[in-house]
Design a protein that fits this description.
- The protein is mainly α.
- The protein folds into two domains: 9-61, no CATH class; 71-295, no CATH class.
- The chain is built from 14 helices and no strands.
- It has helices at residues 9-18, 26-35, 38-42, 63-103, 121-138, 143-151, 158-161, 167-176, 179-188, 193-211, 229-234, 243-253, 257-273, 289-295.
- Helix 1 (9-18) crosses helix 2 and helix 4 packs across helix 9.
- The protein starts with 8 loop residues before the first helix and ends with a helix.
Length: 298
């Protein structure tokens, strides 16, 4: 089967109209489509597709409402990013400190390079050797890389290395450690090893969605977040594979109450602002979401 023929902006608008989307202002629609990829924008219209039909929208589907969903998603990206940054920086510090204090206190202080200190040796080698070498090359002009290259033959303490690792590789590095180190780090972050391993994985995935402008609204989230069996039994409306579950995960890993409170208030205000177009269930938000968010501030 041949690929679809590329469409001009006018053809894109005609395509939407032929699929029964209502466009009151075609000049505005053309301006939007000149700034936002047609394929990306159409992702926010998935909820308006007729059941059993892959092309046509339900009657009353308005271009402006789809555009507002895109705007909501963009603001949601901006809202979540600084809090994901806080957790990422906090995790870098706790992981580097916990492992280093356990394994690197005695000379030559480089046991983070020794795969025998890790349960998953293949994962350690791929991160500390392959990924780290690539990141050192990409950041070869950074002063701290130049310093360690010239003075320590390229070797770095773990608290320096973690600054070069992506959140995803940081998560994998934690998972590669023995339980003894995982447990110390998890306790320092107020979690069990199983929960922290899952939360780092979830938040690394969420961070990648946010960093690369991935759609957050009406999207899939894997792996399911560990929120606790008792919690899920108490609040059966909350599903573990939704954005709301990932937001709760983010709040639980934030290091202080002020961060949690600011995130909860900002998110509630954003949802209220766009309540005319968003559907809570497509975010995984239960009807009493504000109570759940406020309940995490502790």
């Amino acid at each position: 089967m041949e690929l679809k023929k590329p469409m001009s902006l006018d053809e894109q608008i005609q395509q939407l109209v032929s699929h029964r989307m209502e466009i009151a202002d075609k000049d505005h629609a053309k301006q939007v489509l000149s700034e936002v990829n047609y394929y990306r924008l159409s992702g926010y219209a998935l909820q308006f597709r007729e059941k059993g039909n892959s092309e046509y929208y339900v009657p009353g589907t308005e271009f402006m409402k789809v555009w507002r969903l895109h705007q909501f998603d963009s603001e949601l990206h901006s809202l979540l990013k600084p809090y994901l940054d806080i957790v990422e920086l906090y995790a870098r510090k706790q992981i580097a400190y916990g492992f280093s204090m356990s394994k690197c206190q005695h000379p030559p202080h480089d046991q983070h390079y020794n795969s025998s200190n890790y349960y998953n040796k293949d994962s350690h080698n791929s991160i500390i050797i392959a990924s780290l070498n690539r990141e050192k090359l990409n950041n070869k002009d950074a002063l701290f890389v130049v310093h360690h290259t010239e003075k320590y033959e390229g070797k770095m303490p773990l608290w320096v290395i973690v600054e070069l690792l992506s959140f995803t590789n940081l998560s994998k590095l934690y998972s590669a450690m023995y339980y003894s180190e995982q447990d110390v780090i998890a306790k320092s972050m107020g979690a069990t090893t199983r929960t922290l391993k899952n939360h780092l994985h979830c938040l690394a995935n969420l961070r990648n969605k946010v960093a690369h402008a991935g759609r957050l609204y009406n999207a899939a989230y894997n792996p399911p977040a560990i929120l606790g069996q008792r919690f899920l039994q108490r609040y059966p409306d909350i599903k573990s594979d939704t954005l709301f579950a990932y937001v709760l995960t983010l709040m639980r890993r934030l290091p202080n109450i002020e961060n949690k409170s600011m995130l909860a208030v900002a998110l509630i205000n954003l949802v209220i602002q766009y309540s005319d177009c968003i559907q809570l269930h497509l975010l995984g938000f239960p009807p009493n979401y504000f109570q759940q968010l406020c309940g995490e501030i502790k």
